[in-house]
Amino acid sequence: MAQATRIQITDVSKIYQTETKTVEAVKNFTESVKDGEFVCVVGASGCGKTTLLWCLSGLHPATSGTVHIDGELLTKPLPDRIGMVFQDSNLLPWRTLIENIELPFQIKKKAVNRKLVDELLDVAGLKGFENSYPGELSGGMKQRGSIVRALAQDPEVLLMDEPFGALDAFTREEMNLFLLKVWERTRKTIVFVTHSISEAIFLADRVWVMSPRPGRLSRIVDVDFPRPRDIDLQFEPKFIEILKSIREDVEGSKSGKGQ
Amino acid sequence: MATDNLADKIPDFNSATVNQGGNGPVDVSAIAGIRRAKGLKEIASVIALAIVVVTLLEFILIWTHTEAYVFPKPTAIIRSLFTDFPTLYWKPLTQTVQTFFLGLIIGSTIGLSLAVLVTLKPGLDIFISPYIIILVTTPMVALIPFLMLKFGFGMTPRVIAISLATGPMVMINSATGFRRTNAELIALGKSYGATEFQLFRKIRFPFALPMIIVGFMVGSIFGLLTAVGAEMVGGGMGLGNRLIYFSSLVQMSQFGAVLVIVATFGVGIYSFFTFINRKWASWDA
Ligand SMILES: Nc1ncnc2c1ncn2[C@@H]1O[C@H](COP(=O)(O)OP(=O)(O)OP(=O)(O)O)[C@@H](O)[C@H]1O
Ligand SMILES: [Mg+2]
């Protein structure tokens, strides 16, 4: 598949300057994401994954380097083209599920795309819960709700920051299958940050492995298991082999720092 | 667009320190957290206990031959409340209510506006906060003699004092609520292109609402305190003035009646804001 480049990251660095210290959270990051590609970013805690994603979203500026979306320099959030899915679902607790999904439409002063919302709610298994408050939904339902909220804007790019981090293993598998189902239908370009290496391999076309302090792209792993994938994939020898090698990378970069 | 001021707050979400509303400088749970009686049976038993307590008090006062000027009997107070209400209590009550509400409205409007201002322009905070702290911690009744010299004995000095008592409370709680708004929620709004005004309306304000309500509740209670206290100092109006008047004449059942009215007013404020809290901010529970 020879698709166009959707996201071009060129020499992006992000330095946090606090009163007491300077942290190089991301350093000289250069890579691109193709249209319709599913990229997962893994790395040890604190290695700069969230920082990278925020640079891609336009929510905060890189200290140096550039991000281009469809060839256009990113300087601010692009609400019509980039959708963010945050950790902890991030649903407004005082709004019902459907009101949460409608929020972006209200902000953009656009009519709600009922057809798309309905369809997404259906795929997400959230039909019948439209009028429930987030406090009345399970963790998995909230996450699905926040994904529906992002997808209802029909963005070209979906940036996801450990969206399933807080879920138990079973719910997580279920969420992964749900996400793949949606992705196979819509073929959005996805950059997905996760702590879980197996989750990354299961979902991604390519896995970016980051090394910490400063956060650099240390390795890119192509994952070419055929799609649609099912959950038993994680028991195949080749899967386990990739898992081991990425794990060694992440572990190694964690303990062997200082070089 | 103010993307920059987010930049330095972002990625510590994982530390899970973001407080999802709730306990500000003034702890809500202490005031608003009393469980409400549920069902007829419970309500009936609460009322029954109150009747028993009052009756007991009445009999103790009879048995110990306590004179009315030492401690008025509940029955005397109740009788006075019913028979003297239109003649003795209605007018001072309206005077207190009027100054109280005027002060509350002026004070809370200014307080809420200041809270919005320091949220939008965080740099101003360090200039405004010291005064707010001074105003919150100083009993505003203390200003009354001075204000009376300046503004005379009418409503003005009391309204000013009440505003100064309520405003800072509303301001401090609202500002804390606005500031505590989960940074991820703000980022969510920004990622959908929300303007600063939209962020306020759709995210910051609703998020801070429980704390704003607490600010209003505590501010109102401070305000009532100041209202009655100020009337006791001078000016010849309101329930506070009646307290001084009746006690100087040793008309203790009338004094007790005024006290009951003041207490009812206070409880009314508390109940009102508890109700509002339950209605508009129940998600925070
Ligand atoms: N606002 C900030 N000020 C100073 N340093 C920061 C700030 N935000 C993040 N950092 C630092 O930047 C580095 C990268 O943080 P980031 O949140 O991007 O890591 P992460 O890979 O997402 O971690 P995790 O997997 O735990 O979510 C960390 O060392 C962190 O301490
Ligand atoms: Mg992170």
From TrEMBL, chain A:
Segment forming the signal sequence: none
KW Nucleotide-binding (keyword) present: yes
GO molecular function, one term: ATP hydrolysis activity
Keywords: ATP-binding, Nucleotide-binding, Transport
UniProt domain ABC transporter: residue ranges: 7-237
InterPro entries attached to this UniProt entry: AAA+_ATPase, ABC_transporter-like_ATP-bd, ABC_transporter_ATP-bind, P-loop_NTPase
Database matches in Gene3D superfamilies: P-loop containing nucleotide triphosphate hydrolases
Keyword field contains Lipoprotein: no
Pfam families recorded: ABC_tran
PANTHER family associated with the record: ALIPHATIC SULFONATES IMPORT ATP-BINDING PROTEIN SSUB, TAURINE IMPORT ATP-BINDING PROTEIN-RELATED
Protein name, as recorded: Unannotated protein
Organism of origin: freshwater metagenome
Lineage: unclassified sequences, metagenomes, ecological metagenomes
Automatic annotation (TrEMBL), chain B:
Domain ABC transmembrane type-1: 93-271
GO biological process, alphabetically ordered: transmembrane transport
Protein name: Unannotated protein
Database matches in Gene3D superfamilies: MetI-like
Compartment(s) of residence: Cell membrane
Major place of residence: membrane
Organism of provenance: freshwater metagenome
Keywords from the UniProt entry: Cell membrane, Membrane, Transmembrane, Transmembrane helix, Transport
CDD domains (UniProt xref): TM_PBP2
Topology relative to the membrane: Multi-pass membrane protein
GO cellular component terms attached to this protein's record: plasma membrane
Keyword Nucleus: no
InterPro entries per the UniProt record, alphabetical: MetI-like (IPR000515), MetI-like_sf (IPR035906)
Pfam assignment, any one: BPD_transp_1
Transmembrane segments: 43-63, 100-120, 132-153, 159-178, 207-230, 250-273
PROSITE patterns linked to this entry: ABC_TM1 (PS50928)
PANTHER family: ABC TRANSPORTER PERMEASE PROTEIN HI_0355-RELATED, ALKANE SULFONATE ABC TRANSPORTER-RELATED, MEMBRANE SUBUNIT
